[in-house]
Amino acid sequence: MKDLDSLADRVRLHRQGDSRNVVIVEGVSDKRILQRSFSESDVVYFPAGSRPVALEAAKKLTLWRQEYFICVVDRDFDDEVSNVSRANRKIPLHPYDNADLEGMLTVAGAAGDLVSEFGSADKIKDLGGAQQVLQKTYSLIEPISRLRRANYENNWGLAFDRVEIASKIDRKTFALKVQSYCAALDSTSDQSPGQAVLLEYAKGTKEARSAPKCPRGTVPYFRGRDFLGALSAALCGYCGSRRPQSVEPEHLASILRLAGSAHLRRGGWGEEFMQLTSVSL
Fold it and tell me: What gap in Å lies between CA 127 and CA 124, rounded to an integer?
């Protein structure tokens, strides 16, 4: 029965009674922001629940020669999206820029709105402006991005979400306590190579075989939630005076998605989304 309830089957069955184009997304939050950003697009969204499920549905629908959908997913720090695309160029994938949706919205300009809204105007001015705050935050999470790629290539099974980034940041200097972070990360997996090796990758003295990058050229490349974890800490001292509970990363992520709707629509990714979903199929 489980096989009969596959996303691809549900999409194809739905299409029999609804001629609108379909957008397969990872989660409900993706559906909400796309609906807000492209409210005039007459499409139907299918949240998959995860990226693997979304990609598998896209592969099946393409195999069945269904040509009325696109699949919107995160790139993350692995090669899954590029591998699927290389295996079959006909699969209509439209991945977010950067590593994920939050990363794309950050680079597009929505994060600057967060800094200005939640930070201290005087502190931000003394630091050289919101863009300087963003650049500092990007630099802070670079070691984490290096570790994410190395984790994928070496199959260490590290559980990044179990390490709270804000707790590993020196509030006075706004710098990542890299050794402490690596020690905490090392404890999340039995397959970890040890904190000494993790530290080498974090510092860049050891490098992954290939660095993840966005084909559309957005830089730096990072996970949006890593950035928001660091920004949460920044707003509590470095560039603001907020209480931690008022700027928790998950709360900032929700606000980023709200603030990012206009940025999403104006950018090149959004223009392509409109083109792809307006084609009559």
Answer: 5
